[in-house]
Amino acid sequence: MKKILITGATGQIGTDLAEELRRIYGRDNVITSSRRDKPEFHEAGPFESMDCTDAKAFYELAKKHEVDTILHLAAILSAQGEKNPNLLWDINVNGLYNSLEVSKELGCALFVPSSIGSFGPSTPRDHTPQTTIQRPTTAYGISKVTGELLCDYYHLKYGLDTRGVRFPGLISYKALPGGGTTDYAVHIYHEAKKNGHYSSYIDKGTYMDMMYMPDAVDSIIQLMEANPDKLIDRNAFNVSAMSFEPEDIKKSIQKIMPDFTMDYDVDPIRQAIADSWPNSLDTSAAREQWGFNPKFDLDKMTEDMLKNI
Ligand code: VAH
C-alpha cells in the first residue's frame, strides 16, 4: 500500500484506521471520505465528501488521488439495516459494486470487511469453520455474503486483488459504533464511567465474538501487506480475539470498578440478531495464511477502555 483511499472513513473503524495508516504511510498518502462533510474531518489529513453509491464520484475521487488501494468501509450495520433494508442494500451492495468496478478500472487492491453477521442459524455455532454454511437471516448478513461472493468473483474473473475479513463486534473509544448489534460492548464502558451502571439490551448468556479496535486495525494492515501467494480464503477471513457474554464483561469491569452494576432490558430485535450469529469463530486460516495474532484479551481491553474514556 502506498496511496490509500478509505471510504466510510468517519465511522467506528475508519476513525482509528485512518490515524494508524497516516502514522505508517504518511498523512498525505491516506485520503479519507464519507457521505457527510464536517470541518473537523479535514483537520487530520486529506478528506473529500463522497457518496459511494455515486459510481462517477467514486471513480473520479480515486483517479484524482491516484490511489493504489481502496479500503471500502462504507456500510449500514445490522440493527440499523433491519429498520431500512432498502437503504442498506443501496449502500452495502451497490456501493460495494462501485468499489469493485473502480478498483478494476484503476488497478487498485481492495479491502472490504465482512462480518460474523454473514453467518446464520444453520451455521455451526461453536468454533465456526472458515468455510461453512452461510444463510444469514438479516439484510445486513445477506449483503455481507453478497459482498464476499462478489469480491471473490472479481478476483477469479479479473484478477483483482480483493481481500477481506469477517469482523466480530469491534470495541473502541475514539468513535462510537452506529446501529450495530454488538454495540452494547462499547456502551457498557461509557455507562460504567458515567453512571456506574448499565442496562444491557443483549441478554445474559449471549456469546458473541469480539475484538479490540487496535487488533482490528492491525489485522487490516497485516492482511493488505500479506504475500498474495499465500492467500487462499481471500474473501473473507474469520478473525476474532475473544468470545464473551454480558456477564463476562461486567465482571471484567468490576475488577477495576467493584461498585459497577448491570441489569437487563433486552431488545428483542437485536437479541434475535445476536441469537442468529455464532458463539465463537475458528480463526486458524487467518493465523496460518497471513499471521493474524490479536494482542488484547477482555481484561486488557477493559483496562485500556476505562483508562481512555
Ligand atoms: C454489527 N458491529 O453489530 C457490527 C458487526 C459483528 C457485528 O457487523 O452490526
Automatic annotation (TrEMBL):
Q: Which Gene3D superfamilies match?
A: NAD(P)-binding Rossmann-like Domain
Q: Give every NAD-dependent epimerase/dehydratase domain span.
A: 4-227
InterPro entries in the record, alphabetically? Epimerase_deHydtase (IPR001509), NAD(P)-bd_dom_sf (IPR036291), NAD(P)_epim/dehydratase (IPR051225)
Matches recorded under Pfam families: Epimerase
Its domain of life?
Bacteria
State the similarity comment: Belongs to the NAD(P)-dependent epimerase/dehydratase family.
Q: Which PANTHER family match?
A: L-THREONINE 3-DEHYDROGENASE, L-THREONINE 3-DEHYDROGENASE, MITOCHONDRIAL
**Name recorded for this polypeptide:** NAD-dependent epimerase/dehydratase family protein
Question: Which organism does this sequence originate in?
Answer: Peptostreptococcus equinus
